[in-house]
Amino acid sequence: MNSIFKIKPYFSERIWGGSKLRDFGFAIPNEKIGEAWVISAHENGMGYVDYLGKTISLKEFYQNKALFADSRAEYPLLVKIITANDYLSVQVHPDDEYALKHHNSLGKPESWYILDCPVGAKLIYGHNAKTKAEMTTAIEQGAWKEVLKEVDIAPGDFLYVEPGKIHAITPGVTVYELQRSSDITYRLYDYDHLDDLKKPRELHIEDSLKNIKIPDSADVIVRQAQGAIFDSPYFSLFLYQPGQNFAVNPEIPWYQLTVIAGSGTINGVDFKMGESAIYLNQNQKLAITGNLKVIISWIK
């Protein structure tokens, strides 16, 4: 049986979108695309798989437990490539308990691997408030420069964004984002962006304050990440580069593959930059040829 199934991505229009995703091999439909949901079974951005002569959703594909030796009811992960032409809103995400209670959804831990950014680029990552009162005052006074924390980034850096961590992507930055399959986001600050109707977008101050970790949680940043980048109960990542080996764990039923550079083959299937797939683990070695650079991700 074939063990590798490519995913047809979903392209998301954003007010800060553009055409840069074409540089990563994507045939985007217009000049307003900010995100490619390259592996997604979420209703807000569904991916599709060719299986037995038909094109079916990744959600439907995952329900075939003869293929996925997995007891989870819903596909648990989501992978995006995000390109920003402008500042994205400053956000915070809920944990499982809050998201389940208020949205009947999973919480949203996420992570970023920096694919491209300008020299000297920074991301908003965390805050400087010591108490909730201090954070509330900063919000009321619009003291964003004082309360928001910036960190330097370069291509190849990795950042983990746990629930409750304030964060935002900045102009010119392109990231591979791995997250739980959740689309719950609270906007704390939006740089006075206007929507298509020329109105300010909704903010979620109350929900944000209930979820921001105060004092700020510890930073989790891996500079020039290589090999086994990150491991957690939510998801794990490995950066494969030419000449390396990746040991398939027989206890992991499936892996996600996203090619971030190069061209070649994976177990005999042709791949190029921008393509993603599901690998159904048959206890085989992942045989990767060419100059492919691949982010391999999974959940335990």
UniProtKB/TrEMBL annotation:
Residues 4-104 form the Phosphomannose isomerase type I catalytic domain. Zn(2+) binds at H93, E110, H167. Gene3D superfamilies: Jelly Rolls (2.60.120.10). GO terms for molecular function: mannose-6-phosphate isomerase activity; zinc ion binding. The active site is at R187. It comes from the Bacteria. GO terms for biological process: carbohydrate metabolic process. Binds 1 zinc ion per subunit. CDD domains: cupin_PMI_type_I_N_bac. InterPro entries: Carb_Metab_Reg_Kinase/Isom (IPR051804), Man6P_isomerase_Firm_short (IPR014628), PMI_typeI_cat (IPR046457), RmlC-like_jellyroll (IPR014710), RmlC_Cupin_sf (IPR011051). Keywords: Isomerase, Metal-binding, Zinc. Its cofactor is Zn(2+). This is Mannose-6-phosphate isomerase.
